[in-house]
Every structure is written in C-alpha cells, then in structure tokens.
Amino acid sequence: MKPLLSCLLLAGTAGLFGCASAPSAPEVAASGKEWVTESDEPEAQRRARLRVELASGYFEKGQVTVALDEVKQALAADPSYAPAHNLRGLIYLRLKEPRLAEASFLQAIKLAPRDGDSWHNLGWMHCEAGKYADAVAAFGKALQTPQYAAASRTWMSQGICQARAGQPLEAERSLLRAFELDPANPIVSYNLASLLMQRGDYARAQFYIRRLNNSELANAESLWLGARVEHKLKQSETARQIGEQLRSRYPESQEAAAYERGAFDD
User: Which domains does the chain have, with CATH numbers?
Assistant: First the structure.
C-alpha cells in the first residue's frame, strides 16, 4: 500500500486523505506575503500585491484561468514581484504546464532567493515529475531559509516524496520531523502509520493511526488502515469495531468493500 498523498499541503483537513490521484501542487500554497510594510510599499508593488491576493482567492476556488489573468495583471504592474511568479508557477502546475511552472518558480527564486515557499513549490514540482534528488535538494533550500514558517509542510512533502522514491527510512525521518512540528496534521500521521505498517512495525503504526482515528479527521482510508493494523496485532475485537465504524460511516467506499471481503493482508 502506497503512502497517502495530499491534494494541498497547506490544508490539513479531513478531506485530504483521498487525494492521492489528484494533481497536487501540494499542498503547496502560493506565497502572497508582503515584502515590505504597507506604509513603505511602492505603488506598483501595492497594485501587484492586491492582484495576487485576488488571484490566490480565485486559485483556491478552482477558477484557474481567472487567477492566471489576475497574476498577469500583477506582473504588468510590477514584474519584479516574486509572489506573483510563485503563484503563476502553481497555476501552471494545475494547468499541467510543468516547463512554464518551473520557469515561474525559478524566476520567483531569482527575485527572492530567501523565499522558502518558492523553493518548496519547486521541490514538489520535481517530486511530481519523479525527479526525487532535485526535489529533496529544493526542499532542503526551503528548510534552510531563515525564519521559514512552513517547515512542517516541507518536511511532510519531503517525506512523501522520499516514500515515492522508495526510500522508506529517509521518508520516516522526514515525517517524524514533520510530526514533531505539527503533531495534529492528519496527513503526517497517516503516512507515518502506512510506512511503519509496510515494514511490519505494527505497534508504532498503531500509535499514529489511533491518534488520527480518535480525532474528527478520521476518514475511510485512515479507518481501514487502523483496522488492518489492529488485525496484524491480533486485536480482533478492536479491528472489528473500527471496521464496523468504517462500514457505517462510509458504506460505499472501496475501504468498506475491502473490509467486507476481509482483505486485511492485501
């Protein structure tokens, strides 16, 4: 079973577990930060910032072409505004234009080399393309950024990427670091439990998946993983209880169907 991936790495809400097949820009949000205080902000940058704020809202709502139009207007106002290039990169990723996305991220980094968000987004783009070494290198640049506020997100993304690359021990280390920084993140807990389950460390997997399933962020995938872990630990009654919860709450899910078949070892 592959570790679960997220659609948007910043979201951290219950619906994210089922996003493995969706085109993620994980879960990599655009950086719309202000680079100077508003009182010192040049007029051109102010106009660009406001356009980027509008574009971010459209992007989050899935109105990608409208977001791109707003970004183009932001860059017309101030071509040197790095967050506009960063958001444009995310939009191009969503539009499945990786070359344009990479060019946008690299331009954002050129303009603001200490912006961890742009390095993070470049790293996820490389991960999606299967360029795992390049991805880890970019994530490392993000994590080295002074006062970087989204380190947990980047450790999580790096761990997911390392798991994709077939590096479970490295993935575990990255995800453990993400867990230290953000123990409430359901994506981190799920992926840690999944990795530990795969290598037969069922007791530790139980710790992480129980934390998740005892929260309001549990869903079909996490419940099914929890049932499988309990089954491996020969906790048959607990496995049954989790399975019944899965069947009751998500009767039409693939996971409920797997439980019905007793496919604990698939």
Answer: 43-112 (1.25.40.10), 203-265 (no CATH)
